Amino acid sequence: MVTRARPLIGGLFAIAVIGVVFFIVLPSIAPWSDVWAATKNLTWPWLVALAIAAALNVVTFAPPWMAVMPGLSFRAALAVTMASTASTYIVPGGAFVGMGFQFAMLRGWGFRGRPVTLGLTIASLWNQLVIFGCPPIALAILAGNTAASPLLNTLSWVGIAVIGAIVAGLIASLYSDELANGIGDLAANLASRALAIVRRSPVSWGGDAFVRFRRDARDLLKSRWHVITLTTLAGHLSMWFVLVIALRAVGIPWDSVSLAESFAAWSLVRVIGQIPIVPGGFGVIEVGLTAALVGFGGDRAAVVAAVVLYRMLTVVPPLLLGAMFAATWRRHHPGWETEAAPNEAPSQA
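RESULT FIELD:
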């Protein structure tokens, strides 16, 4: 009964958080009538700019997956990322739910397990590197211009620690077969002990799986690390670009919230959004981003309007496209993939 009730409890909690944010917290910052006044005078040039920014954001979802999964076409990569992103907005669990959708879709199309696992791992690691790397960069940019908030300062050090851990783990895993084998055996032992506590069977993988992963990852990163890095950066920064256009569209001038300050606020909430409090960070991201931008000097009503526009333009398109791709991905599979190397091509078995 507890297991069955858990999704219902989680859903009710998410609805409660969203309700409190949109009916109590945000109106206390700026009445909705003032927010509407800040948006109703949007000119056609700004509406077009917002539409272009939102479309650009959607388009940049696919290239990182094309980089980590050679042989995956743009349309297939877009379907994978849109469907998985939409799932994170609906189902509790954050990135883990999205990764599950990605794995299921790619395996359903016939891609072998090893390339899929490798692609998921590299894509996820590079996403975390960008997310946790942005606050330190924002702090460095603001150092000579504006006093950074204590929270940004704290998250910058957290980001540095996370990046250090990821890089150290990558170096250790890729250094040698012997070290990868030792790390794999240790991880398998710890995982099996944890499973034994809940009376589950031990894992079937071990150090040899890490050795194979090391060799695959080394070959992929050797030839594509720069493409993976650039496409991942483009995907994340396109979201920030939507925020920048939204801020200018509602009339917030450069001397109220500069590019550096908007980047700092955006970087801050991106890290906070990694905490799976509610699906998609609804409510949490709106409050965090609004508080940061108002703290930097933005007009309250205009900031709330810009944040709402930003969230609509970065959530609604992936949600709608993701629902469409999730419902139709099987029938569209034939002919989506381009030719790939034998070890990378979809398995027909």
